[in-house]
Design a protein that fits this description.
With 418 residues, the protein is mainly alpha-helical. It contains 17 helices and 5 strands. The chain has a 3-stranded antiparallel sheet with strand order 3-5-4. The protein has a two-stranded antiparallel sheet with strand order 1-2. Helix 2 (31-41) packs across helix 6 (110-124) and helix 7 (130-144) packs antiparallel against helix 8. The longest helix has 33 residues, at 211-243. It starts with 21 loop residues before the first helix and ends with a strand.
């Protein structure tokens, strides 16, 4: 029970014991370790960085974990002596550094060692998707020790749902740029999704596990299944957008090339491009200052800017009516159409798409995903004739190895006549 006169009790209504709150009770049990983090992270960013630097260096010497005052002074000679002594004093007073008076040596406390381990795990994932990687690592560590935290599973489940929602928004935007970025994001986190799948499978196979853990694990498995289907959805939507891409006359350029090039220009360069194109400037009849301020604040302070990716504008050249690549794809599409026309019984995916080369096999697989697409069927092309065939394309979440010189694995699936 918490003392009613403590500062913490002042945050709650009179007569209510904060210790009765489950989430708060678990925090109070870990108060010693949380105090270590508070000691490290209280204050300005620069102070925190120096504290972490000193503590990580002290904790990194595994062969001789104890330090004498002279060793600390010599090793950290590159730090301002006043600042160094201030940091060391703070670590001592808050129990992160322990002084052994018998041997006159310093050593890290238990709470300091745990705090450093947590920080090391977090910084390990700073170069990739830190959140999903860190959460998956926590769940995997708990599963390996036979003690999976329901809270860690819930955080992982929430992150997967957030990613899926972001991917759906990219698809709804109908923007090729956003869809390509979303697909790149999915590829960057896929290794963590696969690792999470292995952990969830192990949790679900443990019949003696906690019921709450089992329920959250099942929800994570469903979320991962939705993300797995996103790979095909992205490929299909990008293929649709590619078919709608506008070619700028006979220049060899497309609207996508121009859009990528324009994104790399600065505001000054864009203003130069648009100079003298308008004989007058827009003059709105009214403007609400509060709305303008909100929009400006978001654009300048909160909006996340995409990293600049080099995308040189292709040179303007006279292109033939059909490029060699387009002619080759037309031939592949006609060959696949002839093959599918003759299917009257259930046929494996390998029999339908495997060709002599990997590019042709991949192109065939992308065409199969369009079977039954109503929008693609409206076009006047061999692809439209192909998607109108009375066939269904069915796959499973299983990958088979195939005996092919350029294709190592292939999703298990079938082509079935309707």
């Amino acid at each position: 029970m918490i003392n009613t006169e403590s500062p913490l009790a002042e945050f709650f209504q009179p007569g209510f014991d904060p210790a009765d709150l489950g989430p708060l009770a678990s925090l109070l049990r870990a108060r010693e370790y949380l105090n270590a983090l508070i000691t490290l992270f209280r204050g300005g960013e620069d102070e925190v960085m120096v504290r972490l630097l000193i503590l990580r260096v002290i904790g990194s010497r595994a062969d001789a974990p104890r330090w004498s005052p002279q060793e600390l002074e010599t090793h950290f000679s590159y730090i301002n002596p006043v600042k160094r002594d201030t940091v060391l004093k703070r670590l001592r007073e808050n129990g992160l550094l322990v002084w052994d008076s018998d041997e006159s040596l310093y050593s890290l406390s238990e709470s300091a060692r745990i705090a450093l381990a947590a920080i090391a795990t977090l910084t390990q994932f700073a170069d990739s998707d830190a959140e999903l990687g860190y959460l998956t690592a926590q769940v995997a560590a708990g599963q390996a020790l036979g003690n999976v935290s329901p809270e860690a599973l819930q955080h992982l489940h929430a992150r997967l749902n957030e990613l899926h929602r972001n991917f759906e928004e990219a698809l709804e935007s109908q923007s090729e740029y956003q869809i390509r970025n979303a697909r790149a994001k999915l590829e960057s986190v896929w290794k963590w999704v696969e690792k999470g799948t292995d952990v969830v499978r192990s949790v679900l196979e443990d019949e003696s596990g906690d019921r709450q853990v089992q329920q959250v694990a099942q929800a994570i498995a469903l979320a991962q299944g939705r993300m797995l289907r996103m790979t095909g959805v992205f490929q299909r939507r990008l293929a649709e957008l590619a078919a709608q891409r506008v070619h700028l006359g006979q220049s060899g350029l497309t609207s996508t090339n121009v859009a990528d090039w324009l994104r790399e220009r600065t505001q000054e360069q864009l203003a130069t491009l648009g100079r003298d194109l308008l004989t007058f400037h827009p003059e709105p009849s009214f403007a609400m200052s509060d709305i303008l301020l909100d929009v400006t604040e978001f654009e300048l302070l909160e909006r996340e800017r995409d990293e600049i990716v080099a995308s040189d504008l292709p040179s303007s050249e006279i292109s033939p009516a059909m490029t060699a690549v387009e002619a080759e794809r037309l031939i592949h599409a006609e060959e696949l159409f002839a093959l599918l026309q003759g299917i009257d019984v259930e046929t494996t995916l390998a029999q339908a798409v495997l060709a002599d080369t990997y590019p042709e096999t991949a192109y065939r697989l992308s065409l199969l995903s369009l079977l039954g697409d109503q929008e693609a069927a409206l076009e006047q092309s061999i692809v439209a004739d192909l998607v109108k065939l009375p066939l269904a394309f069915v796959t499973e979440d299983i990958v088979d190895e195939v005996d092919h010189p350029e294709v190592a694995t292939l999703t298990r699936g079938w082509v079935k006549p309707l």
